[in-house]
Amino acid sequence: MATEVKVEADPAEAGFDEGRLRRIDRHFARYVEDGLLPGFLAVVSRHGRIVHVTAHGARDVEASAPVESDTVWRIFSMSKPITSVAAMTFVEEGMIDLTDAIARWLPEFAEPRVYTKGSALAPVTEPATEPIRLWHLLSHTAGLTYGFHHTHPVDARYRAAGYEWGTPSGVDLAGASRAWAGLPLVFQPGSEWNYSVATDVLGRLVEVLAGKPLDEVLAERIFGPLGMSDTGFWTADHNRLAALYLPDPKTKRIVRNDEVFGAIGTKRPDCFSGGGGLVSTAGDYHRFTQMLLRRGELDGVRVLAPRTVDLMTANHLPGHVDLEAYGRPLFAEMPFDGFGFGLGFSVLVDPVKAKTLSTPGEYAWGGAASTAFWVDPDEDLTVAFYTQLLPSSTHPFRQQLRQLVYQALLD
């Protein structure tokens, strides 16, 4: 049974101006009315209770099917925090340490090579000066990359091997991990930040630690305990699964895309992508964010210890700098200015530099189809936004949503 999202508390009692919260509705409804967005669902919660829910438009424009509270969304990279939490449960059990070299469990990474110069066809490499460690995977500092970046010769090597937006047909997670291990690293482990397949490798590491497929691990350690019954790598209820859209290059008006990504979430995949393969509902992901806000526990079920959540949501970039100072100038699901990175989450370190009304210590991430969430521990606040528009850089939804939420918060 789907976890319902509905208003649970008077916004005023939670410190919000209800009239100002409705600005969220009007603002994003204009995107829908202008044909720039198929539909959306936004959820605002404070002190553990939902104070605002707004839905507008269609989950499937062509079928005239409206967005509903139980609509299933492809959350793409919002899978990453879930896989990261799963990995940290093994750290808590003493099965692996953050500083352990992953080659102990994934021998394909025993002798990584690092790109130094040359073309994609003839790269010059050198041995890694230190092994890839667990914390490198969690913090995207392993030297791995994505084929879709199109900024580095190693990115082209990923594409040539069939790893641009996904994995080749018939290749499982173990096979993908071996393929990535055979490609050069973009930099020495721990020396920079680069958005990458690191969380997919993390998912493979979790499989080896558990001795079972990633879908079973996530179901046993997170989805089952938290009652996230609609979250997984596919859904059998295709009627509730929202359709995917792209912007027309000239007009920005939405165009349906079933060919490239439409099958995601409709059937059991060959590869369980812990970095981007999950589907979920607003109700399910709300339970995940509430567990995080409560520092690892929800409704009497403890997934992580409080100190573990605190460690994951601290900035792990060396020198506590932001991504602008430490990362590569390429695409990621959050801005670089003023944001650091923890173990599976972006972390806001400087609201002034980020030009945001949010609070230092806010942690967050988003997905390729413009979904996003954040948790603000200081304000006891969680916010999530769901739609299906690729890529997430099409419109500045996330910054706009932050502005609209915090301008309505009065205490």
UniProtKB/TrEMBL annotation:
Superkingdom classification of source: Bacteria
Coiled coil start-end: none
Matching Gene3D superfamilies: DD-peptidase/beta-lactamase superfamily
Annotated Beta-lactamase-related domain residues: 24-403
InterPro entries: Beta-lactam-related, Beta-lactam/transpept-like, Diverse_Enzym_Activities
Pfam families per the UniProt record, alphabetical: Beta-lactamase (PF00144)
PANTHER family attached to this UniProt entry: BETA-LACTAMASE FAMILY PROTEIN (AFU_ORTHOLOGUE AFUA_5G07500), BETA-LACTAMASE-RELATED
Protein's recorded name: CubicO group peptidase (Beta-lactamase class C family)
Organism: Amycolatopsis jiangsuensis
Lineage of producing organism: Bacteria, Bacillati, Actinomycetota, Actinomycetes, Pseudonocardiales
